[in-house]
């Protein structure tokens, strides 16, 4: 309404990457539980990006 945010903040790169990772997992998740488990266990985490 013409004013800045009451609490302006920025998300740092590591937080944005983690949010993006979770978003990708959720939006690409199949409905079949067995397929969900296969995807979840196949993902490797890069320690530099964690």
Proportion of residues in extended strands: under 5%
Shape: elongated
Secondary-structure-derived class: mainly alpha
Number of strands: 0
Order of helices and strands: HH
The poorly predicted ranges are none
Terminal-residue CA separation:
37 Å
Radius of gyration: 16 Å
Largest sheet: none
Number of helices: 2
Report on the structure:
The structure is a single chain. With 50 residues, the chain is mainly α. The chain has two helices and no strands. The chain has helices at residues 13-28, 33-42. It is elongated, with a radius of gyration of 16 Å. The mean pLDDT is 80.
Question: What's the short version?
Answer:
With 50 residues, the chain is an all-alpha fold. It contains two helices and no strands.
Kindly list the characteristics that best describe this protein.
50 residues, mainly alpha, 2 helices, 0% strand
């Amino acid at each position: 309404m013409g004013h800045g945010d009451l609490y302006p903040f920025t998300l740092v790169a590591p937080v944005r990457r983690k949010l993006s990772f979770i978003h990708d997992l959720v939006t690409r998740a199949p409905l079949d539980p067995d397929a969900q488990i296969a995807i979840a266990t196949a993902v490797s985490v890069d320690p530099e990006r964690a």
